[in-house]
Design a protein that fits this description.
The complex is a heterodimer. Chain A is about 50% helix and about 15% strand. Chain A is of the alpha+beta class. Chain A has a seven-stranded antiparallel sheet. In chain A, strands 9-10-8-11 form a four-stranded mixed sheet. Chain B is mainly beta. Chain B starts with a strand and ends with a helix. Classes of the chains: A alpha+beta, B mainly beta.
């Protein structure tokens, strides 16, 4: 029977192998290569094997394994089975292969089931895994990512060096930092830009725009916004965002301490603007923690609610929402105002310890006639930050240690 | 047609001396230099559809270049990765190449794409593989050195190190050890190859280099 497309392994061939046309008859299996060499394995010597990349290749080998004739052509197995002493081995190998492929299918189904189960567990466990991974990371990770991020960002305005403004903002942050959880070192920059915005980066980099200061009628309003932003830092929301974008495998990697890949992703996220736009749950958590911090700091926690209201009102009246960047990244104001006020009510009365800052002077300093007002108001900011470095590019430093 | 592989193993390249009537088929972009009397003709890698299949699944390019000449001249061919190149003369037998390994072949060699199976995918070698058969020389390259091994019975190869194998060899993805040691040994999955037949291995793995590089970024 034949011919069948196949091949020969034999040391006598150049390279030890060649393609061949095979035939099967009562004497055994015969192969002839295109170069004209012929090989025969007598039926009584033929030791059968089944395998190959496809799993359907039949090998007929001499007992010393010096000569192997093989093929996966259709009909070759039937031809082998027609030989009296080979019909039994062919049937046995086929049975064996069927059993193996059944096992393979079962294994595949089991693996698929496990994969689906893992997927479901991963989906629900992702948040937990990310949080756990972040809890396990040292604070240096936050600081490193924050530094990387701020250096790779276009901040959109010159740094303000007017001590009236920087001292006031530093004083607020210092007070809040003292009563906020965690052990972060805050670096505050005040930038001169119209945008009503402030944001915090992992590790304690805080950026406040003069637009926000100008818009706030009372110190507590800015303090409220800053308390909210500090909460993003202390709750490590930035790293959580990174962890979420990493997925389960990335969270594991993070847990094992591969900061290299993490930082690269942080910078990517930063470019996409995702590191400072937090999820709804994170915003809610930052509101809650912000109110707690304000309360503990002896400041009027309602400031944040009043600021929300102000922004909402202005947005309704004027149609220039693009300068209200802080609000555009903080949606659902109605609900959040209600939540904040409900929380304040539940906290009970606060022993207010207002900061002694002439807020009007600060606002004048950032206003359109800032040059004139700046130096005059400087003396009014009485509470100073513990450490001052107003001339440095990085702005001033407010440092504290957890007790 | 005369050929030799120069500067082995690190920066191997192929010099093919051609005379009138010789034809050489090479992966597009494999040519580094050639004499001016060599004609280069780009054609689909075996018809549009097959070329597309090879491009999409075999990791090869859509076009291959065919070199020929009226006089005598030479072509220098090379590969993107630093590493060795192997030349194999096919005598009617077939060889499977992992995606991207193919560099060139003589005109008598047929190129095709075959389904490689899940074991190959899990082993990091891709779902499809390039199939070379027919008669003539085939050149394929690797990252690092290449060595051949005749496999009789079972042999274990780490993922990403298998460059080529004969159809008589079966592949199976397996854990390198138990579940835990597979994870912590850094070996993870391995490919269990079963002969008879020959396999070609590369001494370095691009995926391992990429992972190492990634861990040093930033």
């Amino acid at each position: 029977m034949g011919p069948f497309d196949g091949g020969v392994f034999d040391k006598r061939l150049q390279g030890g192998r060649a393609g061949a046309q095979l035939t099967v008859d009562a004497h055994g299996v015969h192969a002839s290569t295109t170069a004209g060499d012929t090989f025969d394995v007598p039926a009584r010597d033929c030791q059968l094997e089944l395998g190959g990349a496809s799993g359907r290749m039949w090998f007929c080998r001499t007992p010393d394994r010096q000569l192997t004739i093989y093929s996966e052509a259709r009909g070759f197995a039937e031809a082998l089975a027609s030989l009296p002493n080979l019909s039994q081995p062919v049937a046995e190998l086929r049975r064996h292969r069927r059993a193996e492929s059944r096992r393979g299918v079962l294994f595949l189904l089991a693996a698929l089931g496990m994969l689906i189960a893992l997927g479901i567990a991963g989906y629900f466990g992702l948040d937990y895994a990310g949080r756990a991974a972040i809890e396990a990371l040292p604070r240096e990770a936050d600081e490193r990512i924050g530094r990387l991020a701020i250096n790779s960002m276009d901040l959109g305005g010159p740094t303000v060096h007017d001590k009236t403004v920087t001292d006031a903002v530093n004083a607020i942050v210092a007070r809040l930092a003292e009563h906020a959880p965690g052990d972060f070192e805050y670096q505050v920059r005040v930038l001169d830009a119209e945008t009503v915005n402030a944001f915090a980066l992992p590790g304690g980099q805080i950026v406040v725009y003069t637009g926000l200061i100008a818009k706030a009628e009372a110190l507590d309003e800015v303090a409220g916004v800053l308390a909210h932003e500090i909460a993003h830092v202390t709750q490590r929301h930035g790293l959580q965002r990174i962890a979420q974008s990493l997925g389960v495998a990335g969270s594991l990697e993070l847990l094992l301490g591969d900061l290299g890949g993490l930082s690269a992703i942080a910078v990517e996220l930063m470019r996409a603007g995702a590191l400072t736009s937090y999820g709804r749950d994170q915003e809610r958590e930052a509101d809650e923690q912000g109110v707690l911090t304000m309360h503990a700091s002896g400041l009027d926690a309602d400031g944040i609610a009043r600021f929300f209201q102000k922004l909402q009102k202005e947005q309704d009246e004027m149609e220039i929402p693009e300068i209200f960047a802080w609000m555009s990244s903080h949606p659902d104001l109605d609900e959040r105002i209600a939540n904040v006020r409900a929380q304040i009510d539940s906290l009970g009365p606060v022993a207010e310890q207002p900061l002694e800052i002439d807020w009007d002077a600060v606002r004048r300093a950032v206003g359109p006639d800032a040059e004139a007002a700046g130096s005059a108001a400087e003396a009014d900011a009485t509470e100073k930050a513990p450490e001052q470095n107003a001339d440095s590019k990085a702005g001033s430093k407010a440092k504290r240690r957890k007790r | 047609m005369e050929s030799r592989i120069i500067d082995r193993p690190s920066f191997a390249h192929i010099r093919v001396d051609m005379s009138a009537g010789d034809r050489l088929v090479a992966e597009s972009d494999a040519m580094a230099s050639m004499t001016s009397n060599i004609q280069l003709k780009a054609r689909f890698n075996g018809g549009l559809f097959r070329a597309l299949v090879r491009r999409l699944f075999g990791g090869e390019s859509l076009f291959v270049n065919e070199y020929s000449t009226d006089g005598t001249g030479h072509v220098i061919l090379t590969q993107p990765t630093p590493g060795d190149i192997e030349c194999l003369e096919l005598r009617g037998n077939t060889l499977y190449l992992q995606g991207g390994a193919f560099i060139a072949c003589e005109a008598g060699v047929k190129l095709g794409v075959g389904w490689a199976g899940l074991a190959s995918l899990i082993g990091g070698e891709g779902l499809f593989r390039l199939k070379v058969g027919g008669h003539g020389k085939v050149w394929f390259g690797a990252y690092g050195g290449i060595f051949a091994r005749e496999v009789e019975g079972e042999y274990i190869v780490d993922t990403g190190h298998l460059v080529a194998y004969e159809p008589s060899v079966s592949l199976r993805a397996r854990l390198s050890g138990g579940l835990l040691s597979s994870f912590f040994s850094g070996e993870g999955l391995v490919t269990r190859v079963r002969g008879p037949g020959r396999i070609y291995l590369q001494t370095r793995s691009i995926a391992a280099l990429a992972a190492w590089t990634n861990s040093h970024l930033v």
